Amino acid sequence: MITTSNLSKKYSGNQVLHIENLDIPKGQSFGLVGNNGAGKTTYFSLLLDLIQPTTGKIKSNNIQVNKSEDWKPFTSAFIDESFLIGYLTPEEYFYFVGDLRGENKADVDAFVGQFEDFFHGEILGKKKYLRDLSKGNQKKAGIVAALIGNPEVVILDEPFANLDPTTQIRLKGIVKDLAETKGVTVLISSHDLMHVTDVCERIVVLEKGEVVKDLVTNAATLKELEAHFAN
Amino acid sequence: MIKHFLNLEWKAFFRSASFGKSLGIKIFMGFMALYFMGFFLVGGFFLDKILEKIYPKIDLITAFTGLIFFWILGDLLFRFFFQKLPVMSVKPLLTLPVNRSKIVHYVLGKSALSFFNFLPLFAIIPFGIKLFFKDYPSSSVLILILALIVTTLIINFLNFIIESFSAQTELSFLPVILITGGLFALDYFNIISFNSLVSSAYTAIYESPILILGLVLILGVLYIFNYKLLHKKLFLDSGLKTEVKEVKASNLEWTKSFGDIAPFMQLDLRLIWRNKRTKSSVWMLGLGLLYGLFFYPQPVYQDKTFFFIFIGIFSTGIFLINFGQFVPAWDSGYYKLLMSQNIKYEQYLKSKFTLMALSVVILFVLGIPYVYFGWKILFAHFAAAIYNIGVNTHVILWGGSFNRKKIDLSQKAAFNYQGTGAVQWLIGIPLLLLPMILFAILNWLVSFEIACIVLIVMGVLGIVFHQKLMRFITEKYLESKYKMIDAFDQEN
After folding, report:
1. pLDDT digits (tens, 9 = 90+) for B340-379
2. Could you tell me how far CA B414 lies from the centroid of its own chain?
3. Which of A132, B64, B190, B371 could cross-link to B378 by cystine, CB 3.0-4.6 Å?
4. What residues in A contact B245, CB-CB < 8 Å?
5. Cα–Cα–Cα angle for B282, B276, B264, rounded to 5 degrees
6. Would the pTM of this model clear 0.80, i.e. be above it?
7. Where are the beta strands (DSSP E) in B157-241?
8. Are A9 and A46 in contact (CB under 8 A)?
9. Which residues on adjacent β-strands are paired with residue A189?
10. A129 contacts on B by Cβ (under 8 Å)
11. Burial class of residue B248, CB neighbours in 10 A (0-12, 13-18, 19+)
């Protein structure tokens, strides 16, 4: 689904990302871990064509993301609060995103209705603007908005941060379901090794912009990751 | 402790985000401050002359104290809208080992050093010096000056009390207007003459200095009252809470008739209506519409036909100029979302175009009553409106592709130059000057009618080639996509 070749990004001669080769097959739940400054967000930004690569390219479904915009209909993402429109209510925001992805109000209502549990009664019908919600609730709204319109690729940067334990567990269920039953390619970055090993079939460790580990998740993965980051 | 507080203040001032504003704005703000100080200085210096002229038979001191009542009312009203108690800055101190009472004293003390309290000094001191030279007893004059300084502080603290009581109500400005208006009315209709009461009080202080203790006592009471209020409210869930307004939403279904640009039009309308900064451009509509009334009733402008076109462009295009100059910076807060979503740039821009074109039509229609001042004016306005729709909308959208400044929507509008760069000034040349010059030349060489028709033709050409122009503009936006994303990510 997503192939990365010879990708690098430099800021004034300073290399922040360099990935020779990385293939992510369709329907894989893919985890990206690494310390601050490892290049996780940079990689996601390149994938979304928000910044330009210095060399190399990323192809999503055989579409080179910085050449054509045809990857947009099947890709969605929630990176940070700058993906939210502060002066809309959550409902209006969902309808707006739905409109852009060709879903009408009824579709969006039905879809968002499934997440009643996830929202814990704090998002819908509250008559509040997104900018006035708490950080955690903002995140919930952003993540659900990223799932509207049956995307084939979903990119979530640090989805577990700022969420309460119940919501974290529910989110894990949602992500697993996406990859296993709906065949969606899910890309997640996280600082929480436990969550990432719970959810992802494959985990890649970035360090100073380079891939240093590429693991298929199994019972020993968490130990291995913990050992890696302990040093 | 004081040392720490002062240190924090110092750093807050020099390291604030707004301190890094461009030099031009800083100089402008400096000039504004200088202007007010100069205004007060000159006013204070000539106050004795002015008073002698207006009240030739009354003693200078009595005439002066007769003004104090109105000063207090005016100052209260002014401060209510412009001065806020600086409480938010102490939030980080709450969890540190600092006494709550010390924090409160600090906040109140800091408010006493506000610019509003120093401004009157610029008038009071020169006036006092003039009094010295007029051989008024120096000790009495000094006491009067001192009394006025204490009064400034009384107004300062009184304002915060009024603010804290009216903050909870829906129309928070109503109480202060009622109080000041009521006092003024009672005085004006001679029901209770507050003015002569206040006047005789200050005259009494002038005559027997010991009475100043009364003012000091009032100040002390107000300070303690403020202290109590603030001490009670210095919690995250009361005084330090940021306000959350309940949403009154409409679904804007009518925009659906605009087809595929409907989602963006809804977004734009909500953007305009729900943010302080954008809301002001709505209020500007009224100003723009009435702009002609400043000029047309005066006979001087009756035969200056080239002036009609300036007013026409301005009054039908005020929304276009105000809103258009910050496209796409209005959306800078969530630009990354728009860029990674499944959107067509052309639809996004077309929504902005449609809004601006609609505003021109509406403003022109509302401005039809100008025909009262002559049909030529209406014709000129019509030409200006067509030119605005056909040419200026495209020019301003094109100018937007050079926009690299982020706008924080939650900031207030007045004196806010965030998002303003050289582009905004340069774009004014083709927008306003070009049609004016063109019109003036044609008007002078050929005739008024031909000049109008040329502008109309230019506008119509713009409308005819709308699709082509939009495609060109869209390309410009696509070219600068990464630069914009990067720029909108920066705090400026």
Report:
1. 887 778 888 988 999 999 999 999 999 888 888 888 889 9
2. 3
3. B371
4. 129, 132
5. 70
6. no
7. none
8. yes
9. A32, A157
10. 245, 247, 274
11. exposed
